[in-house]
Amino acid sequence: MPKQDTFETEQLTDAAFYILLALIEPLHGYAIMKNIEQMTGIQGIIGPGTLYTLLKKMCANELISQTLLEEGKKRYTLTEKGRTLLRHELKRRETIVEVARRIMQEKGI
């Protein structure tokens, strides 16, 4: 059975979530990686291969758009569809944490 596209199921990987979050402000590729490192405090959390593969998929799914800058760099911008998915994903992750906290408190962990 083929692997389902996480953008269709609206369940993002951590890497995809961080990329969309970083793109609340338009950025080019290297700046996205640095922004994510700054957000998380983890150096190299997303490598170039993962980043550019996901950026390509996100463009194809119209979650982000790209603009070619004069210097030859590509600037990526979150679309309204991407913003909607980011909000949905945040809510989904909050629910996971709430359920986990409740269960752990009930079990005394």
UniProtKB/TrEMBL annotation:
Residue intervals of the Transcription regulator PadR N-terminal domain: 21-87
Keyword check for Cell inner membrane: no
Gene3D superfamilies per the UniProt record, alphabetical: Winged helix-like DNA-binding domain superfamily/Winged helix DNA-binding domain
UniProt cross-references to InterPro entries, sorted A to Z: Metal_resp_DNA-bind_regulator, Tscrpt_reg_PadR_N, WH-like_DNA-bd_sf, WH_DNA-bd_sf
One Pfam family, short name: PadR
Superkingdom to which the source organism belongs: Bacteria
Keywords assigned by UniProt, alphabetized: Membrane, Transmembrane, Transmembrane helix
Keyword set includes Transmembrane helix: yes
TM regions (residue ranges): 15-33
PANTHER family: PADR-FAMILY TRANSCRIPTIONAL REGULATOR
Name of the protein described by the UniProt record: PadR family transcriptional regulator
